[in-house]
Amino acid sequence: MPEFKRVLIPTDGSEFTKAAVESGLLLAKLSGGKATALYVLDQSVYSGSHLDSAVVNIYDTLEKEGRFATGYVLERGRDLGVEVEEKIVEGTPAKTIAHESSNYDVIVMGTLGRAGISKLLMGSVAEKVIKESMCPVMVVRSVSSR
User: Fold this and answer.
1) Do the Cβ atoms of 37 and 13 come closer than 8 Å?
2) What SS3 state is found at 49?
3) Is residue 1 part of a domain?
4) Which of 12, 23, 70, 140 could covalently link to 37 via disulfide, CB atoms 3.0 to 4.6 Å apart?
5) Alpha-carbon dihedral sign for residues 1, 128, 139, 96
6) CA-CA distances (angstroms) from residue 36 to 3, 5, 10, 74?
7) CATH number of the CATH domain containing 76
8) pLDDT tens digits for range 113-138
């Protein structure tokens, strides 16, 4: 049976990721491992902007959101006695998470639970990560998306 000592928990800070955060941290605790809270500064949000000050404002806002999101995981990890590293990187979420997967034993992530036209138009980050990941991926659906 594989040991899940290095748990990657991608987060965007939304309510939809909280169940995955809890599951990832509990898995790390049970395995005696540690977790990494990953926030991806989505380059697609600001890369098409031509106004320098607008780009700086968007980037700063996303970075603050990322600190809040990873901070939540860090705080929950402290509550549960799990060591958590915070990591904020630039990229596109699915590609970045999949790229990071080679450094971990398992990824535990949430899903928005989109269906129909919304999923068709936006795709699923979790689905893309599952296809490209170098390690197992556990997708935890949030209570609010059921």
Assistant:
1) no
2) coil
3) no
4) 70
5) positive
6) 16, 11, 8, 9
7) 3.40.50.12370
8) 555 554 544 458 888 999 999 999 99
